[in-house]
Amino acid sequence: MSSKSGTPKKNLLLFSGRAHPELADEVAKELDISVTAQDAYDFANGEIFVRFQESVRGTDAFVLQSHTDPINKWIMEQLIMVDALKRGSAKRITVVMPFYPYGRQDKKHKGREPVSARLIADLFKTAGADRLITVDLHTDQITGFFDGPVDHMRAQKVLTEHVSETYGGEDITVVSPDSGRTKLAEKWADRLGGCPIAFVHKTRDPLRPNEVVANRVVGEVKGRLCVVVDDMVDTGGTIAKAVQQLLDEGASGVVIAATHGILSGPAPERLANCGAREVIFTNTLPIPEEKRFANLTVISIAPLLARTIQEVFDDGSVTSLFDGDA
Question: Helices marked H in the chain — which ranges?
């Protein structure tokens, strides 16, 4: 006999970086497994060490990390975890990054600039990643930066469901905080039953990043509840100004909804005091107690991530999770 038949068996293992262990625990609970035990610590000079406490040979490994501040440390830790899995003979390594780091650096605006979003994809491919799972990329083109399958999940469904349940009886206008997000606003409007959309036309000073010079609203907002949608909120300056503009133009109320709450620096204070009725984020990034405020709602992305991981593991259809909106 020249060959020997073996029993094909698949084992799913979930690994978590140290940036957002609560999310990994939620995902594990949804999958009815536990997060694989590991030793992870920093050396005195800042170098990171990771070792898994059980065999990973032949497993289908999913490595979850949230890329929050200090972002470069958590990228490096996830790369090291992928390398450890590759050298431990994991059969397939899927990197789960709910928030894709450096996603805003997806093209060159001027000469001598990096395309850092592509660099991130190359780093994970070189480390040994076979596949990526991510949520609401800054631009869809980033899916083409990684040389392998990318499951680009959308948080829109969980966010729109919350808005429908909470504000279903009101006249809603979906508002894009700038002209570049109108496609997103259109998808939101469809999900909310075909309500109108508007956008805030803004001008920027190219020499002053994160600062908006002037706004004007294009679309019908007077007497309507405006839902301002975006993929991420970082310092909160743009979106806080948009809220003020909408209220000045006669909106009956404003709700902010975004997938990633980065919330750098003054963002929590700005959002708490900008006049918005509610600010809704998912927990793709950890939002610690000190960054939380009265009108903040955080919706868990764990069920969506868990279903995606299960479909990938079962060689099922990830597109089916979009309700045909892929």
Answer: 21-31, 71-87, 116-127, 156-167, 182-191, 237-248, 267-273, 302-313
**pLDDT at residue 326, as a whole number:** 46
d(C-alpha 63, C-alpha 41), whole Å = 17
Question: Are the C-beta atoms of residues 300 and 283 closer than 8 Å to each other?
Answer: yes
Q: Which of 285, 291, 297, 239 is nearest to 269 (CA)?
A: 291
How many of the other CB atoms lie within 10 Å of CB of 6? 6
Look-up: residue for tokens 């070792």? 51
Question: For 286-304, what is the mean pLDDT?
Answer: 97
Residue 252: CB atoms within 10 A of its CB come to 16
Tell whether the model's pLDDT for residue 74 goes beyond 50. yes
Q: How far apart are CA 165 and CA 282, in angstroms?
A: 16
What is the three-class DSSP state of 133?
strand
Q: Token pair of 49, please?
A: 């060490």
Could you please report the per-residue DSSP string of 281-301? EESSS---GGG--TTEEEE--
pTM: 0.92
The maximal CA–CA distance of the chain, rounded, in angstroms, is: 82
Question: For residues 18 and 21, what is the distance between their CA atoms, to the nearest angstrom?
Answer: 6
Catalytic residues: 202
